[in-house]
């Protein structure tokens, strides 16, 4: 049996590995429809300053409640959306929704910024920076309020295109964050040429720094090196106070994770921001 793309379905064929299997195509057309009807939502997870406790930024994360399947999480559809190209719809939708929400949030919290996740595939799309500029202008939001999160793997997939687009985004005045830093194979030396403003330490690096001395040394070294190169450092996936304390002692700038706050829909986030407890309150 051959797929429409001409791949031969051997005895080892597993539908899970065929991005064009019927159920996966249905999932993608459902997703397209949900995006068009605005049935997807952005949840926001705060990042706090380690020293002042101030909420500096919110990361926008897509949430999708499927009419029959219930909640479908990003890890179950983002990779497929990237392979099929549906990711460009997600990105367009997330930029529009995220910047519209940001414009509202800025009334009460003028120092806040929002970060949006962007995929490797988006970098190949012409006009990403134009789209962002147009949307920012439409909502009267300054470029430096918006951060683009891009994984190191996405950049390294095509470093030339990646660098060119990043430079354009930085020229527009956007902040750029290197997401999931330390999760891939990339060497530390490539950091010196990136027009980025912050480095996000991957959860896998951060999670066991209290129990594993070598993890602690890797994180400490990464923070010092990033600072030496002029980047701010965010730790993602911080789940307990001990880890937060240690990251503070290691001079990490910002923290994000369930310990501080789960990703929340904007109507729940607003009251949380107003009644936000102090970090490390004893
Ligand atoms: P990411 O950008 O690295 O986002 C962090 C993920 O870790 C989020 O998962 C977040 O909910 C989760 N997380 C936050 N704090 C903790 C913690 O303390 N412990 C643990 N175990 N997890 C924590 P989520 O929302 O399921 O998203 C997964 C990934 O999907 C994201 O990883 C990002 O790569 C992608 N993604 C999500 N939304 C979008 C989007 O709108 N566009 C694109 N292109 N990708 C997205
Ligand atoms: Mg991210
Ligand atoms: Mg991340
Ligand atoms: Mg991650």
TrEMBL record:
It comes from the Bacteria. Residues 24-277 form the EAL domain. This is EAL domain-containing protein. The chain holds residues 579 to 860 of 860 of the full protein.
């Amino acid at each position: 049996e051959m797929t429409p793309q001409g791949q031969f379905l051997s005895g080892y064929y597993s539908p899970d590995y065929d991005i064009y299997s019927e159920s996966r195509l249905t999932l993608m057309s459902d997703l397209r429809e949900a995006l068009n009807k605005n049935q997807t939502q952005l949840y926001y997870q705060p990042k706090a300053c380690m020293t002042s406790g101030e909420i500096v930024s919110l990361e926008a994360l897509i949430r999708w409640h499927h009419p029959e399947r219930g909640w479908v999480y990003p890890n179950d559809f983002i990779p497929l959306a990237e392979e099929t190209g549906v990711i460009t719809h997600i990105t367009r939708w997330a930029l529009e929704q995220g910047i519209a929400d940001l414009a509202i949030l800025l009334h009460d919290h003028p120092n806040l910024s929002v970060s949006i996740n962007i995929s490797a595939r988006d970098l190949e799309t012409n006009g990403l920076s134009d789209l962002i500029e147009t949307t920012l202008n439409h909502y009267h939001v300054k470029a430096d309020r918006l951060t683009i999160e891009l994984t190191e793997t996405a950049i390294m997939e095509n470093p030339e295109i990646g660098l060119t687009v990043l430079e354009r985004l930085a020229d527009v005045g956007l902040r750029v964050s290197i997401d999931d830093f330390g999760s891939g194979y990339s060497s530390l030396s490539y950091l010196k040429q990136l027009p980025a403003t912050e480095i996000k330490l991957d959860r896998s690096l951060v999670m066991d720094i209290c129990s594993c001395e070598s993890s602690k040394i890797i994180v400490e070294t990464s923070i010092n090196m990033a600072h030496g190169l002029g980047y701010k450092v965010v730790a993602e996936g911080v789940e307990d106070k001990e880890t937060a304390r240690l990251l503070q002692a290691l001079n990490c700038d910002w923290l994000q994770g369930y310990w501080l706050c789960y990703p929340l829909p904007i109507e729940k986030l607003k009251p949380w921001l107003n009644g936000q407890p102090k970090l490390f309150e004893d």
